[in-house]
Amino acid sequence: DGGITQSPKYLFRKEGQNVTLSCEQNLNHDAMYWYRQDPGQGLRLIYYSQIVNDFQKGDIAEGYSVSREKKESFPLTVTSAQKNPTAFYLCASSANRDSHNEQFFGPGTRLTVL
Amino acid sequence: QKEVEQDPGPLSVPEGAIVSLNCTYSNSAFQYFMWYRQYSRKGPELLMYTYSSGNKEDGRFTAQVDKSSKYISLFIRDSQPSDSATYLCAMSGTSYGKLTFGQGTILTVHP
User: Fold this and answer.
1) What CA–CA distances, in Å, run from B55 to A52, B28, B72, B89?
2) Sign of CA pseudo-dihedral B60, B89, A43, A70
3) What is the pLDDT of residue B2?
4) Measured between CB atoms, which of B95, B96, B101 is closest to A43?
């Protein structure tokens, strides 16, 4: 089955620790995205990548980092510099430059900082 | 002021009702409009996709765009309990641009 997988589903982190969220897709999509979702605020774009080995900051990139070494993988690291990391994190992908609007989402990772 | 405004609800309707969900926006460059449905603790799924003004129908769902008023709507006919979810509007200025999302409206359809 084609799709987007995110792991883990739930993640707990102590303050001051970095943590990496996994996102993998087997849809052969060029573009991948990371969003953060907080109650009552919709989705906010953290980082996106339109092609392997290239990525751009979204609206709330501070305290996060990404890499795109393989087409199918786009891991997100939440660093200790992120002041309020507790949130629901969503990864998405889209086929190519002309269909970036049609984004397909993974099931999400819920991160809680203790 | 946010670029996209969406009434967060919550909205509660009886089964069989017609539901109207709405978003307003301020950026006149937006041309591509989407509605996503998100069940609790799941990722959003694309429901409707429209370009520019006009209507688009898919089964019980109708998406409407009025660019002159900067207003989009999603209508759900004969609503079912399985329609209970959060509905997010999203829009973009180009076919490959970043999406800007509304806050989402929580809908509950009770039997």
Assistant:
1) 37, 18, 10, 15
2) positive
3) 82
4) B101
Which of A75-84, A92-101, B18-27 is predicted least confidently?
A92-101
The minimal CB distance from A105 to the residues B32, B45, B95 is found for B45
Low-confidence ranges of chain B (pLDDT < 70): 95-97
Q: Which residues of A touch B49 (CB under 8 A)?
A: 101-102
Q: Rounded to whole angstroms, how far apart are CA atoms A96 and A83?
A: 33
Residue B67 structure tokens: 């660019």
Check CB contact of B86 with chain A, cutoff 8 Å.
no
Q: Which of B35, B30, B29 is nearest to B6 (CA)?
A: B35
From B15, B37, B23, B33, select the one nearest B86 (Cα to Cα).
B37
A-chain residue closest to B32, CA distance:
A101
In the predicted model, what is the mean pLDDT of residues A26-53? 91
Whole-number pLDDT of residue A40: 75
Residues 6+ away with beta carbon under 8 Å from B55? B62, B63, B64, B65
Q: How far is A81 from chain B (nearest CA, A)?
A: 25
